[in-house]
Amino acid sequence: MASAYAFAPSSTELNFSFRSSISPQRYRHFVPGAHSGFWAKTSPRIINHQNPSSSFVVPKRPSKNWELRSFNSVELDRNVTSDDEDEMSEGFLEAIEELERMAREPSDILEEMNERLSAKELQLVLVYFAQEGRDSWCALEVFEWLKKENKVDKETMELMVSIMCGWVKKLIEKGNEVGDVVDLLVDMDCVGLKPGFSMIEKVISLYWEMGMKERVVVFVEEVLRRGYGDADDGEEDGHKGGPTGYLAWKMMVDGNYRDAVKLVIDLRESGLKPEVYSHLIAMTAVVKELNEFAKALRKLKGFARAGLITELDEENVRLIEKYQLDILADGVRLSNWVMQEGSSSISGVVHERLLAMYICAGRGLEAERQLWEMKLVGKEADGDLYDIVLAICASQKEASSIARLFTRIEVASSLRKKKSLSWLLRGYVKGGHYDDAAETLIKMLDLGLNPDYLDRAAVLQGLRKGIHRSGNVETYLKLCKRLSDASLIGPALVYLYMKKYKLWVIKML
């Protein structure tokens, strides 16, 4: 015959025959060990019901990377031609026949024919039973036996991983229940199949890329409910990641920040235990949502100033404040959960996230508190963050906070002093506190620091507008005199018209 046997038509046609189709003689069962949470150190146990004493334990190890690492796919489209047939031993054909008959345990058959089968023939046995309509569970049992006999080389592992990925993809495409997909992952773990990437993340990516957003959430819920997962090491501070964190990260990458936050909170409130690292991912999503919200709000106010839209009324202002407060409340809840369940080593990361949240929301007092909290746990914030918080506090004229933050400036270098005082000045300008901004400019001049031109111009312009409202020119004249003495402005003619007395007051600086 030109083609005696045809193995595995294609990876897309692979199908997994579930345990309902397995003969009672070869039925195996996954028994999860007791666990106290998602990351409990348990090992799945494969039990042979005919001989319980022959069970063995496969330790579960998390993989090492957030990113899915691609593997070298093994071509499953393979036809056994007459040339290949000549290379096959009678033992191979006999093994296929015995395994198809299902009269004995596959391990017993393979043990008996071990010496008569080559490594290539054992791989072909795997491919044969991975075909559509074959007893796919037999492929897993064959791989299990190969693993126990230390006969799984790199090529065989890649072959089985390719077969398994084909099964998983087929289940998802056909719309099978999420529980079926998790069952298959459990079976994979039971037989000792350890790909070089996270299969849970692979499944999440498949669901996500196929647009099955609701189904992928159900999948993560099922994984957490069973306490199963091959979660990866997190990218930050060595903390563990997992299915919840990975899905939240996928949502965040797509810009669905609120969905990422809602995912973690909903899972937590439903009684499940998302991994600690997922809470940090959700807190990052809170920061990004607050940042995007602040950008949108600035644009809205800009349109209002330009007369393109009407000014925001009280109801709209109230809704805006409520939305921001709700987001902040979610971030605080997440931080509290991390503090309760996480190790002390991540306290600094939590306070760092909270600091970013309050900065984006423009909350000066709360942001300042997080700076000191970070310092207490041994995580020093960058100097620029101190300056940003100083500017926020200045815009809100929080005198006590400004005084505390200003203590750092007094012992700083000249370059650092100028940078911090410039931030302080800009904060006053943003808040409309031009008298305080003028005092800051004068302080910079006293220290021998030359303020930037735009900063000087902004303060002078603000003071001029204030003169028209209050008639107070003292601060303006004092600042002009100091700037003139420092040769930072040219000769100036200051004039004031008092309408009541029809009097012009003119002074040359």
From TrEMBL:
Keyword Thylakoid in record: no
Position of the signal peptide: none
Swiss-Prot/TrEMBL PPR repeat ranges: 417-451
Alphabetized UniProt keyword annotations: Repeat
PANTHER family per the UniProt record, alphabetical: OS05G0353300 PROTEIN
Name used for this protein in its record: Pentacotripeptide-repeat region of PRORP domain-containing protein
UniProt source species: Fagus sylvatica
Classification lineage: Eukaryota, Viridiplantae, Streptophyta, Embryophyta, Tracheophyta
